[in-house]
Amino acid sequence: MEKRVVIKIDNLVKHFPIRAGVFKRIVGWVKAVDGVSFEVYEGETLGLVGESGCGKTTVGMTLLRLYEPTSGRIIFNDEDTTYYFMNYLKAKSYIKRTYIDKFEQLKIDKGAKALDELGNVDRKYYKIFIENGASGLYKYLLSNLKEKRKHFRQNVQIVFQDPYSSLDPRMRVKSIVAEGVLAHRLVERAKVNDFVGKTLQDVGIIPAHMFRFPHEFSGGQRQRIGIARALAMQPKVVIADEAVAALDVSIRSQIINLMENLQEKHKLTYIFISHDLAVVKHISDRVAVMYLGKMVEMAPKKELFENPLHPYTVSLMSAIPIPDPDKKKKKRIILKGDVPSPINPPGGCRFHTRCPVAKPICKEKEPPLVEVKPGHFVACHFPGSLKWKA
Amino acid sequence: MYVSREPILQVKNLKTYFYTEDGVIKAVDGVSFELYKGETLGIVGESGSGKSVTSLTIMRLLDEKAKIESGEILFKGKDLLKISEEEMRKIRGNDIAMIFQEPMVALNPVYTIGDQIMEAIILHQKVKESEARKIAIDLLRKVGIPEPEKRVDQYPHQLSGGMRQRAMIAMALSCRPQILIADEPTTALDVTIQAQILELMKELQREYGMALIMITHDMGVIAETADRVAVMYAGRVVEYGTVDEIFKNPKHPYTYALLSSIPRLDVEDQELKSIPGTVPDPLNFPSGCRFHPRCEFAREECKNLDPKLFEVSPSHYTACPFYGVLENVGVK
Amino acid sequence: MTAYIIRRLLILPLILLGVTFIIFGMMQLLGSDKLLAAYVNPNVFDKLTDEELEALKDKYGLNDPLIVRYGKWLNGVLHGDLGWSVVGKTYVSEALMQRIPYTAELALYAIFPVIGVGIWLGIVAAVNHDKFIDHAIRIFAVIGWSFPDFVFGLFILMIFYSFLGWLPPGNFSNWVEDAIKSSNFHYITHILSLDALLNGRFDIFWDVIRHLIGPIITISWLWWAYLLRITRSSMLEVLNKEYIRTARAKGLDEKVVINKHAKRNALIPVTTVGGAMVINLFAGTVIVEVIFNRVGLGSFVAQAATQLDYAAIMGGALFYSTILVVGNLIIDILYAAIDPRIRLG
Ligand SMILES: Nc1ncnc2c1ncn2[C@@H]1O[C@H](COP(=O)(O)OP(=O)(O)O)[C@@H](O)[C@H]1O
Ligand SMILES: Nc1ncnc2c1ncn2[C@@H]1O[C@H](COP(=O)(O)OP(=O)(O)O)[C@@H](O)[C@H]1O
Ligand code: SF4
Ligand SMILES: [Mg+2]
Ligand SMILES: [Mg+2]
Prior knowledge:
By secondary structure, chain B is of the alpha/beta class. Chain B has helices at 51-59, 85-91, 113-125, 129-142, 148-151, 161-173, 191-208, 219-225, 243-248, 253-260, and strands at 7-20, 23-36, 40-44, 66-75, 78-79, 96-99, 179-183, 211-216, 228-233, 236-242, 310-313, 316-318. An eight-stranded mixed beta sheet of chain B has the order 6-7-8-3-9-10-12-11, sandwiched between helices.
């Protein structure tokens, strides 16, 4: 069976301006995310892993449009959502840039034949373009923008890392969970208590506790409430940004198991962001490894862990201490130095300053992300040349 | 590695309580362990289990709210709880050194790295400033800081997290202590940097021949570094043994549950066990065995157990008298 | 650090320019007749006819556009010409020169006890956290904090001046005035108490100090309590920092821990408050000089304001603004000197 793509991000870029001086001039850019692409399939968990500062959170926040992307496309359910949260003029110019100009040329060059070489979304839009002209496509994309926004907001939810600061301390749990639901009119006001109770039960919180405040709960319970808040919206996709990082070991496994059960029950799609490779390995179906704003490797879990090809992935795996004293004799790969600054990332391959197998070309030329095996992508001039086995 | 059977540090029935407005926190409640020359003792436990308070008690660096209720801390036979503050100062940083979790906040932001390292050298080794500076630069080089001549005059904020932790290690080792207490030294660092730091600490321990107390919540770090392990839960040591015994043959339900609840890189299709309930409230620890409300093997007697350790083997102790139940379950 | 200071110094004239423009603009609200008084000897002024007035306005450019007049005024300021003061019956620049030393003397004597005592008590309280001495200092501070400064000044005036007669009002006694006008009293610093010492006249020194005690206590009273509170809480916070624990773990003496590691960090926030305080002390002199009937810049400006002495107000405002701007600059430089994170970015 063909897997359905729910979310696709296409060459996503997010640069943050650095301002300095009296007039707050822009003196540089933090290249937090610099051309990341991936697809997420319905019902799966995509793990996004990498060390702090590599841009994982920025990917999540940009995907949700809590940050405006610098460039790139964000596709949800076969519709381009990139322009949803732009003002009208910007949205229009985005559509012109991304579709209209391209389609006009395409129509001249190839006419309807071009349909076959286009991807899903482009094909759909091109069809509209051919049938109804540019104005038809504008109308299709720009009508009902408010509804579209709502639809997106409801369907893509996030769970944050810090269970202490992510819940408003002055709101009762009931209001925290029901706020979005009421705003989106997903349940009637009269049935809210029932609904919240059921949602809380789902995440393992006693329904009667819905009238309490966040501070009356422990860290693990708060994270459950954070999950309930996301779950209440009946989303398709949940982005979990370091959702278990702040929890104690014994609580962490509870939450991981909870998230797995909920996924099964509600057919959720997860983007699971974490710096912890072991947790990512446990929960994900596919894993994407990031380094300094770039994706360096992506593969189905089993493939990635059995056959890691990027030297960074291999080093990361080797660096993780394994809770088995028999395995400590094994010499690990120790990377030199620190992660360079995303303000001035190294040219060529961004990992070359620390890579144990780098050659002169790595400094010169940036390796593209290529599919070396079905579903296994890697961005390295010498994939597989660094070996390590636990 | 050669590990002598001569204890350099013995902690006996240590109790440290905090008297707060909300009540008494029995943060450390009857903790005992030995540290042998040249070995690494791992202390592992979840947050709030009393690991840091134990180490601060050994260093006598607790704040006024804390009261050491009872116990002995014998350093080479001398009870650190009985000596004067003056004598204790001569031991701190000189015989027993300590590194802390957050390299970002553990260094004074307004003095240079060099200044902060030299301070201890000048104090304990009674050398001149120029001499101390040379020693500091050598130490920085030794802990793997590039361009130590330049770094010595830099301020903490000019160094990365990993570099600061290296500087902290340099500072702790400056007087060649016999004991190094490392309280979560790599928790705040990324894994690739953690690997660097753990490697460095192992190397230096071998070279200096010091005994190391490695405090962490990370079972992986413990397996990696420790010779023997004390597992703490709610202010008490619940299991104590060699690293092999603890990891391969755990004899306390908590250790067992903990080991089966961590996602592992080296295990395929692992089923994660959940420890039910929450970490206990320090103001209101459960009676008897403090783990009993969360323990899958708990029975009625557990509510009224005396806190004491049962010998499993001469090197292996557990606080659970019913550890036999773990015979049949096995880890993983 | 040098680059930082240079950068700040380069912006300084710009800020001053902006401030003077605002002051100047506000004064224009008075209207051109009033403004003219600043240029003409008042004895002549009243006798002028309307035509002569207009001619004079033209002569002094009072009918020119605002920006032109501002340019001219600025030009005058740069040449030391601030106009004629009705109240001072002399040129504003001279009037200021006469009075600034008295005010500066008052402010300087107030600053040191405030900063010294405030910071010192704050540190003592923090180091002895929750002990008797801490509580005592805090109660003392709360009392200080709860008294409006002018009420306090009035109390001092009532008790020590009128009732006990220990402390006299004014700048000095009458006999001092004669003494300092005689030719064998040499002005060196123009700060009277210092000059008295330098002239070997301890009697004059003591007289001046006696006149200063009340005003000093009055303007500094509120501030030391404030400074104490800031220092105490800043110090308490610093004492709980991990680097203090690191310092203790090295085996350092508690004295070194406090004096070297804690104090400097604790003083970082205090610098801001302390700086703002010094600046405000100058402002506070206005009220105090009026209450204690002292000659000085503050009382001069107050008088000028009531009599719409345009030129004098401008001059005073210019002086106070300069103090403010330069004071802020000094604070920033101090800040950078204490905290390498600011200095080195
Ligand atoms: N709002 C922001 N403004 C400026 N820089 C930012 C912002 N958010 C993140 N960054 C920078 O972008 C980079 C990536 O950050 P982040 O996405 O948070 O990484 P991760 O989640 O992988 O730890 C970091 O260098 C970070 O400092
Ligand atoms: N200064 C303090 N005042 C009050 N309680 C404290 C203090 N320091 C630690 N505690 C309490 O002591 C218990 C043990 O803390 P700690 O030793 O820091 O745990 P950990 O094992 O995470 O290092 C915790 O419940 C904590 O709340
Ligand atoms: S491209 Fe070169 S530097 Fe980059 S990871 Fe591959 S081998 Fe290393
Ligand atoms: Mg993040
Ligand atoms: Mg701790």
